Amino acid sequence: xxxxxxxxxxxxxxNDFLFCLRRNKNAxxxxxxxxxxINSGLRxxxxxxxxxxxxxxxxxxxxxxxxxxxxxxxxxxxxQDLIQDYTKDLAPEDYLFPSTKGGHVEVNTVxxxxxxxxxxxxxxxxxxxTLRKTFGxxxxxxxxxxxxxxxxFGHSSEKITKRYIGINxxxxxxxxxxxxxxx
Length: 183
Known about the structure:
Protein name: Integrase
Domain Tyr recombinase: 3-177
Order of helices and strands: HHHHEEHHHHHH
GO molecular function, one term: DNA binding
Keywords: DNA recombination
Low-confidence stretches: none
CATH class: Mainly Alpha
Organism: Marinilactibacillus psychrotolerans
């Protein structure tokens, strides 16, 4: 089975996804999770286990990534108002994304929630990595700085990073849009 998880490439796609999440039983949690994901580029396995103290410990908090074991600095200054509002009633040791069964929400639970949103949107290319890829896609489109993005993602080459965020196909399509010979 191959996976075709893609980023949300337009603001409208992001808005549509948020529209669906806002109708969930745990809408505040789910929307906050989504916004942290598309603004940080973290893997879902690192997002779900975040606690209040992880984000409010400093202006640029550090976490240890589950997959790589590397320390990662989070640059979330643009989200400080949202973070303060969402966490105001939480204790420092509380999970940001609690499960109704105790502990934190599991990655598979988030995946299932995203599959329901994907079905509502008529898409078959949504998964938990959609948030990470959305961050990367928009970061690259805004900055064209693949070297920094490669560092953020911990990738070993620019080629891997561009393929990961789906830029290669977009750029090829754009360059060939009006390319015609012999007319």
